[in-house]
Structure formats: C-alpha cells, structure tokens
Amino acid sequence: MSTTTLTRREQRAKAQHFIDTLEGTAFPNSKRIYVTGSQHDIRVPMREIQLSPTLVSGTKDHPQYEENEAIPVYDTSGPYGDPDIAINIQQGLAKLRQPWIEARADVETLSDRSSAYTRERLTDEGLDALRFTGLLTPKRAKAGHRVTQLHYARNGIVTPEMAFIAIRENMGRERIRSEVLRHQHPGRKLWRAPAGKHHPGVCAR
C-alpha cells in the first residue's frame, strides 16, 4: 500500500488546521454535566455515562427492559470534554481560580521575572513565533503569609479549592436514587490539593 509523504510545509499546515479547528468532545454514550456547590462559581465537571437498559423478563419477541440510571464520574478532560466550550490554545485555560486567589488577598504580583534566564528568553525576538501569548505575571506570598492549601486547612479556613474537591469526591451521589450506585469507598487518610498561586486555570486535583 502506497502512502503519500507530506512536505514539512504541508505537515505544518495540517497541524495548524488541527489547532484551529480543535473543539471539545464528549465520550460516546456520555455527556458533560457540572455539579455545583453553595458557592455560585464552583462548577465541578463530571461525565455522566448513559447505561443501556437491562433485560429483566419477557420473551424473544416481546422482551421487557428496565432502565438504568446514568452514572456520574469525575471528568479530568477540562474544557476538552465539553462540546459547548470554544477551544483556543493561544489563550490557554480559563482562569477559574483567579477570583479565589485574589479574594484571599495574600499574594502580590511581581514587577518582573526574578530569573535572569527567563528575562533573557523573553527578550529573544527569535522566539516570538513560538511563545505562548497568555503568559501570566508571577505572584508571590505577601510578607508574613503562607499561601498553601495545607496552611489554610490547618487554620480552619475552607477554601473554594477544598469545596471543589469535596464535591468531586462525593461524585454527585445525592442525585442518584439507586442504593447500589450510592455506595462509596471509605477512602484513605490522604489529602492533596496541588493548586498553586501560579496556576489559576487548573482544577483542584
């Protein structure tokens, strides 16, 4: 079987077309839903898996089926799993956590990059065509402040990131009627929320 070898120009054009037409897509038999909490801007992405009906009785000619509830699972695909979100990789992810970070008022924006290497790279015009246009200005903790989720937790502060994780771990079980599906693993004594001040676009993991 013969294959056509693309030139480098054609390969770049094909890659650019893929980037320009990229859009969110749900898995087969699934749809994106969002579970909300008491705070209006917390929307936890879930993938609701549609199940086929179960054959329970009847005959070959007249089978009787029982409908099954959809099962929600946590969706880590971000905007790429939501067909209703316009994807633009030049702009990057939406800054979902930016208001949460700013509301705590415990970080400040640096006037410049502290790394000499980074400053050198930013002034290199030869890299302009490759540079991500949505670069953020670095932040740091204000004097006398700690800005980790662990520090907030130890001081009894419930952050939106923690609320996000709690909703995610609950998996929207209050929406489910079946007791079998409502069963949840008891879990382990392990808690991590790697959501730093420099990554406002990430979901708390």
UniProtKB/TrEMBL annotation:
UniProt keyword list: Lyase
Domain ThiC-associated: 27-108
GO cellular component: cytosol
GO BP, sorted A to Z: thiamine biosynthetic process
A matching Pfam family: ThiC-associated
Gene Ontology molecular-function annotations: iron-sulfur cluster binding; phosphomethylpyrimidine synthase activity
EC number: 4.1.99.17
Name the record gives this protein: Thiamine biosynthesis protein
Signal sequence, renumbered to the chain: none
This protein's encoding gene: thiC_1
